[in-house]
Amino acid sequence: MNIRIRHLTMAFVVLYAVLFLQVNRWQFLQRDALVDDPRNNRVTVRQFNSPRGRIVTADGDVVARTVKIDPKKRPNARFQYQREYPDGELFAHVTGYYTVAFGATQLERTENDVLTGKTGQQQVQGVDDLFTRDLTGTVELTLRSDLQKVTQQALKGRVGSAVVMDPRTGAVLAMYSNPTFDPNLVASHDTGEANDVLMKLQADKEKPLLANAYQERYMPGSTFKVLTTAIAFETGALTNLSNYPVTNKWVPPNTDNPIQNYGKKTCGGDLAEVFSRSCNIPFAQTAVALGPDTMVNGVNAFGLEEAVPIDLPGAATSTFGGDSDYFKDSLALLAIHGFGQGGVQLTPLHMATIASSVANGGVMMKPYVVQRRVASDNTVISDTQAQPWKTPMTAATARTLTSLMEGVVREGTAACCMQLKNGVKAAAKTGTAQLFDDPKKQRSHAWIMGFAPAEQPRVAVAVMLKGVNEEISAGTGGKLAGPVAKRLLDAALSLVPSG
Amino acid sequence: MPNATSPIANARRRSELLLVLLAGVITVAAYVLASLGKNASIPAGLGPFLAFVVALLLVAHVAVRFLARGADALMLPLVALLHGIGFVMISRLSDRLARLQATWTLVAIAAFVVTLLVVERVGDLRRYRYTTLAVGVGLLLLPLVPSLGFTSGGARIWVNLGPINFQPGEFAKIALAVFFAAYLAEYFTTKTKEEGTLIGAEPWRIGKLVLPEAQHFVPVMLAWGASVVVMVFEKDLGSSLLFFTLFVVLLWIATERTSYLLVGFGLFAVGAVIAYNVFGHVQTRVSIWLDPWSQYESRGYQPIQALFSLAEGGLTGTGLGLGDPAAVPAAHNDFIFAAIGEELGLLGSVAVLSAYVLLIGGGLRTALRADRAFDKLLATGLTTIIGVQAFIIIGGVVRVVPLTGVTLPFVSYGGSSLVANYVLLALLLRISDTTSRRLHETTDTASVWERLEAWRARRASKKTEAA
């Protein structure tokens, strides 16, 4: 019998070896495939059954939070927690959304580890204190809820974007785009309902899901003259004493089509005058005089052709519309691009960083929206330090540009609308980007960029109103975007503590 | 009684005590971790729980120390470990089931002690072989009695006895193992190597293959019949397979003829093919096994969730209390192995597999050491029950075999299963102890009953003397 019992033992060993191999298959070899299987909703279930940290503004407003679902009120709730955005649309383009079936966007995506307590520091904290199950972190924004609300109201009824930032640090104080969306609707646990909302938003031609302030780019119009002027000063091609002939037409090289000033006006004079009145011809001539290489290198020094390195995902890349070879073949286009028409495209955020660079003595700071990441035990995981991104001009050039932009507010295209409260002096440059996409109806975007106080800038701003209707298209940047910028600068100077 | 003249037995008991306490430490630590993981708090009533676990383990150990001193030292600790891990998983899944399981644990340990107390010499069971047959068959058929038996989870294996429900099949398997060991031992103890064959008829042969004698077809057919009854009328595929494997294995070991094994599995194959063609529930089980993915929305949901659960655990697991094993329907019962795999990872599931392999090893070592046919066969049979049952259900969860609902011995939630398996463990320890006495590893001291009898006799004789 003993031999048979030994055989039986061997048989059991073989049987259990098969089990061992099969368990290895599911838990090791094919594990990833099973975990990633679309039918496997364990990850989602776990996420929505766990708390998730808050996103709060610099002035202490909670803009994203998770609330425990009361089973008495919602007995059929699929999960234990619901993500909420108390301010609705206000911060949608910054926080993004966090959904059951459609993933997460913006900070909800990039700050996921902090919010769920998965950063190394939070995990170590979890080991230290076994009783702290809630390891969720808090993300503190540089944006202010009060200023953001002013921005929302200032853009009410318009399609467009506004960005307010601290030029000294790059901290974004407000950033809003119209149209936007209510992330609460997308965060619904009813995936069918959420899907309907998303489909509708995706079908909207004004792209409310896209954070237009930094994910969409627009022709900048005359605001671009700030760049052309800076480049000319940097290379010594321009001085304060430069003079331009008074004319209404100029034919650039290699073409027969003349360039005209806005509204076919006759325009000319010294630099201060052509800058504040925003004549086109002097800047077209300057761009051609500088040549393709200098212009392209110059705009690249401002960060064009690069995505703005903001701590938000998917920032669009501003562009000059071509490389130097492209412009060597067509100096006429270089002339047009020189005053911000044609193929030049910038994001409103990028425009705000350019205004900031002038305000900050020529140093362009890296824009950011997350100031601090804080663990559940109130220890700071990270505190964002201001970092320079580019230095497109010297301090001297920045000073010259500031005085030119002050002229725009004092007696130029923004004189109508940029007189700040308490006599604070602002510096600005307007832009009216003429789009020739529809021959019957002329459209244009209204732009303004600037900063205040001009002597010691604390706030920089960029406003872009999209030319979607007659009113915008008929107006100019100064008249339309100017009042918005004034409102934002006034609000920012009074709301943001100086320091 | 602790005895200085039995160093081997004493050493075994010392090892057992240490290992049992280790299993207790692991259980309590796992219980605390599961509570920390789930609720971030030390479990309420940790003190009483600790006392409860230690008391039960000590009771079981002391029972062995006094009633089966020479028994194997490994089996009780292994069972305590499996039981502990199972209990922690159940308590982590449901407080209500944990309370019931705790009550059943008390009953199971009591049954363990009573079995050791009542079955003093394993040979005693041999005398009751026809009683055990009657009890076994009766228990097996009990769920079929109208108004008494009922169907749950698709299988008619339950009996309602007033306040409690139980599965008589869990006890039937032990009774039938005893009967078969006794029956086969009776036929084959006379057989020796010199005799070569049984007394009497020359066996039929086909070439070199010796066919089973006609009279031995009787138990084979009986086993086959019992399996068919279980499969057809109770729709319990797992138990059916378990019974049949038990009988065929015992027949094979007793006769030492591979032909029985072949004939047995041939019969099983025929039965399986017929069952597959006749019964819808068999076809369903097989089709889910072969391809659960195409029926994810319906019948494949549970086994696929079990795979997701195992995959979730990965190498080291999510940690106790930190996974989501409740996503698998019936995680506390048929699918508890998936729950363990999720929260303890590959390391945990392999540890459980290893515990079963070691337990089977302990049982078969007991069979090997035993010097009487009945003891050998019974130890083999009981071990086969545990080994095959664990294989069937783990194999079902990890898709090695079609899923059939049997409990994972000592681990799954279920009172009948737990009590029956502790009785089974007591019998294995008893066989081990009996062998140890025969081998003079321990002094063959009088048992409790024998001492009681002696005391009575002395008193009676004193009385007569006095009179």
Structural summary, described in words:
The complex is a heterodimer of chains A (499) and B (467). By secondary structure, chain A is an alpha+beta fold. Chain A has a domain at 221-369 and 385-495: Beta-lactamase (3-Layer(aba) Sandwich). In chain A, 40% of the residues lie in helices and 16% in strands. Chain A has 20 helices and 15 strands. Chain A has a 6-stranded mixed β-sheet, with no helix packed on it. Chain A has a 5-stranded antiparallel β-sheet with strand order 6-5-15-14-13, with helices on both faces. The longest helix of chain A has 28 residues, at 2-29. The termini of chain A are far apart. Chain B has 16 helices and 5 strands. Chain B has a 3-stranded antiparallel β-sheet, with no helix packed on it. In chain B, helix 1 packs parallel to helix 3 (75-93). The chains are: A alpha+beta (499), B mainly alpha (467). At the A-B interface, helix 1, helix 2 and helix 3 of A face helix 9, helix 12, helix 13 and helix 14 of B.
Secondary-structure element sequence of chain B? Answer: HHHHHHEEEHEEHHHHHHHHH
Q: How many helix segments of chain B?
A: 16
Alpha-carbon distance between the termini of chain A?
92 Å
CATH class call of the domain at 221-369 and 385-495 in chain A: Alpha Beta
Strand line-up across the major sheet of chain B: 1-2-3
**Mean pLDDT score of chain A:** 91
The spatial strand order of the largest sheet of chain A comes to: 3-2-1-4-10-11
Helix content of chain B: 55-70%
The computed structural class of chain A is alpha+beta
Largest sheet of chain B: 3 strands, antiparallel
Which ranges of chain B are low-confidence, i.e. pLDDT below 50, for 5 or more consecutive residues? 192-201
- The secondary structure category of chain B is mainly alpha
Number of strands of chain A: 15
Describe the main β-sheet of chain A briefly.
6 strands, mixed
Strand fraction of chain B: under 5%
The CATH architecture of the domain at 221-369 and 385-495 in chain A comes to 3-Layer(aba) Sandwich
Greatest chain-chain interface?
A-B, 38 and 47 residues
* Number of alpha- plus pi-helical segments of chain A: 20
